[in-house]
Amino acid sequence: MGTEPPDPVGLEMRIDVVSIFVDYLAPLNLSLVGRAQRSGLLDVQLHDLRGHATDRHRTVDDSPYGGGPGMVMRPDVWGEALDSVLAQASESPPVLVVPTPSGEPFTAAVAEELAGSGWLVFACGRYEGIDARVMTHYRDRCEVREISIGDVVLAGGEAAVLVMVEAIARLLPGVLGNPASAADDSFAPGRAGGPLEGPVYTRPPVWRGLSVPPVLMSGDHGEVSRWRAQESADRSRAMRPDLVPPDVP
Ligand code: ADE
């Protein structure tokens, strides 16, 4: 009758994030991801990379071999940090995710794959990136995925982690109030019409002289589905012609 405590839920995923700006990741305590943590579906642990530096200045970077601008993150500091995270081992090793503009594109399919792993470790680079030997070394110990969230260069991996964790968390069982909303998302496999969702409307029926399309108020579910598929196809062709096969009407 509304007074029962919620059903106990099992942990679906553990996420560790290593960064020199752990405060940047505070939004992981808000909204959907924060709720998933509080309900026990998700366990997020943040680790300060500088805690693994060995000198007085807690240095994490140095100039690049071969010359060039900027600084590169040191492999020894990253090695200590990641070893300490991996030492908290569960039965199977984690997937190590390294956000970088030179990685594979982050897509709905990649989010699904990562959501299927029980343990993700994110390594946030800054400056010109992390010494490449770190990725080479950990490939022998776990799956390593270097991933880009888009063809744009950010100041570091933290904002990319916020994007990826939110996209992944909403795919975990029990995280979304209504799982049907994920099934109907843009990019959901088998979406009717096209890969992008069309426009949506709510009350009031007329706002500043603009009316809601009458078909949506007709009560005819078949007509509504056909209209939405058409809008989805039109929008996909207009916004993302690269995603629409040329032979689709
Ligand atoms: N770090 C800097 N730019 C990035 C990007 N586009 N994707 C992921 N990580 C990044």
Structure characteristics:
alpha/beta; binds adenine; 249 residues; 7 helices; 5-stranded parallel β-sheet; Trp Operon Repressor, Chain A; Alpha/beta knot; 29% helix; two-stranded antiparallel ribbon; 2 domains; single chain; 9 strands
CATH arch. level architecture of the largest domain:
3-Layer(aba) Sandwich
CATH class of the largest domain: Alpha Beta
The CATH homologous superfamily name of the largest domain equals: SPOUT methyltransferase, trefoil knot domain
| SS class | alpha/beta
- Physical arrangement of strands within the biggest beta sheet: 2-1-6-5-7
CA-based gyration radius: 22 Å
Q: Number of DSSP strands?
A: 9
Gross morphology: elongated
Uncertain stretches of 5 or more adjacent residues: none
Question: Brief description of this entry?
Answer:
The protein has 249 residues and is α/β, with parallel strands linked by helices. It has two domains: 13-169, 3-Layer(aba) Sandwich (Alpha/beta knot), CATH 3.40.1280; 184-243, tRNA(m1g37)methyltransferase, domain 2 (Trp Operon Repressor, Chain A, Orthogonal Bundle), CATH 1.10.1270. Helix content is 29%, strand content 18%.
What does this structure look like?
With 249 residues, this protein is of the alpha/beta class. Helix 1 (31-38) links the parallel strand 1 and strand 2. It folds into 2 domains: 13-169, SPOUT methyltransferase, trefoil knot domain (Alpha/beta knot, 3-Layer(aba) Sandwich); 184-243, Trp Operon Repressor, Chain A (Orthogonal Bundle). Helix 3 (108-115) crosses helix 5. Helix content is 29%, strand content 18%. The chain has 7 helices and 9 strands, in the order βαβββαβαβαβααββα. The chain has a 5-stranded parallel beta sheet, sandwiched between helices. The protein has a two-stranded antiparallel ribbon with strand order 3-4. The site of adenine has 12 residues, from strand 5.
